[in-house]
Write a structure and sequence with these properties.
single chain, alpha+beta, about 325 residues, four-stranded antiparallel sheet, binds adenosine-5'-diphosphate, binds magnesium ion, about 30% strand, globular, nine-stranded mixed sheet
């Protein structure tokens, strides 16, 4: 029995919305996930109209499955240069940087592996070992050549920006909200949350970190002001075959779902794009290598790790409070 499971609720759960101030809220489904947009201030409705239009526009550019998207066109270009939207070029630039920074743990050319596993189809299945080995090693980030908005992708490379596109989108939504004069907003795109300012009453936004073992529960709360918190977890999307669970975050070195001793990792950073790419990379790397990278590259981010045994480790400035009774320890990120 194979079953692709998509958590119906986001893994970062919004706990309390401010009340009293004029606000607007929308629930949508895009980018294969549930979205919630909350905006406060006099321009809230107009800001949300602009945000909704931007989500539709970015999805049409970044999707690996929509016919005619920039990413689909690049994947079919057989090594020919393709003219893309300025946002696609910018996202590819950031994706390439993050891939280099993380030693390829975050890998934008993971598309051939995602296809082999059928993760974007209704019938994912474990591919034959020989099929996977043929795809490895994946073409490096250098397979993406960027000259302004003219992109050339090596013919063997297949892009999949599922590990970074939602973060780029939430960052854009925050910028749009700010352009509309909004000082308080929260954008939730599946496991990605990004905040403009704080709640309307001035207190920090509070987002719950989903308990990987309990779809309804949380293990603790992160306080967020003008930052993004992005979770990657093996429990979010997976299928089962012959009693084994296979999740959607792939180790680009082995071609198999990452197995690094984590149930989930949440990255908190100023940029939603960085937080998204890093959460995927950290999930692949595991906690020790992730913390080593945070220190060696002096990354301006924090993280909350949920280990295989359910215990929690968070970095000093994560502003995370675990539920009572949880085994949660703090680690230094410098
Ligand atoms: P989600 O998309 O569920 O929020 P992630 O941000 O961790 O979670 O992204 C996982 C998605 O990214 C996968 O569905 C796939 O499209 C893509 N992906 C899988 N493995 C990698 C990887 N090692 N590097 C970059 N992208 C990946
Ligand atoms: Mg990610």
């Amino acid at each position: 029995m194979k079953r692709l499971f998509l958590s119906p609720l986001c893994c970062l759960l919004l706990l309390c919305l401010g009340c009293g101030t004029r606000g607007a809220s929308r629930s949508l489904f895009h980018m294969d996930t549930f979205l919630k947009l909350d905006c406060y201030g006099t321009n809230a409705e107009a800001a949300l109209d602009a945000c909704q239009a931007e989500i539709v526009r970015l999805e049409a550019l970044f999707s690996a499955t929509l016919e005619g998207s920039d990413i689909s066109r690049l994947n079919r270009a057989s090594g020919e240069a393709v003219e893309v939207d300025a946002d696609t070029a910018q996202l590819l630039r950031r994706a390439r940087e993050m891939s280099i920074l993380t030693g390829g743990a975050f890998h934008p050319a993971v598309g051939s592996l995602v296809d082999a596993w059928g993760f974007l189809t209704d019938a994912p299945a474990v591919p034959a070992e020989a099929k996977l080995q043929k795809l490895l090693p994946l073409p490096s980030a250098q397979a993406i050549q960027i000259d302004g908005t003219r992109i050339t992708l090596d013919s063997a490379a297949r892009l999949d920006l599922g590990g970074i596109a939602k973060g780029y989108c939430s960052e854009r939504l925050c910028n749009i909200a700010r352009e509309y004069g909004i000082e308080s907003a929260l954008f939730t795109l599946g496991g990605n949350v990004e905040a403009v300012g704080s709640r309307p009453d001035g207190s920090p936004w509070r987002v719950g970190v989903r308990d990987p073992e309990d779809a309804e529960g949380i293990v603790g709360v992160i306080e967020l002001v003008d930052r993004a918190a992005v979770t990657s977890g093996g429990y979010q999307r997976y299928f089962e075959q012959d009693g084994t669970r296979y999740h959607h975050i792939l180790d680009p070195e082995t071609g198999y779902p990452a197995n690094s001793g984590l149930r989930s990792v949440t990255v908190i950073a100023e940029s939603g794009t960085d937080a998204d790419a890093l959460s995927t990379a950290f999930f692949v790397l595991g906690m020790d290598a992730a913390v080593a990278l945070m220190r060696s590259a002096a990354l301006d981010c924090d993280a909350v790790f949920i280990l295989s045994d359910g215990s929690i480790r968070c970095t000093e400035d994560a502003r995370f409070t675990a539920n009572a009774g949880k085994d949660c320890r703090t680690i230094s990120n410098s």
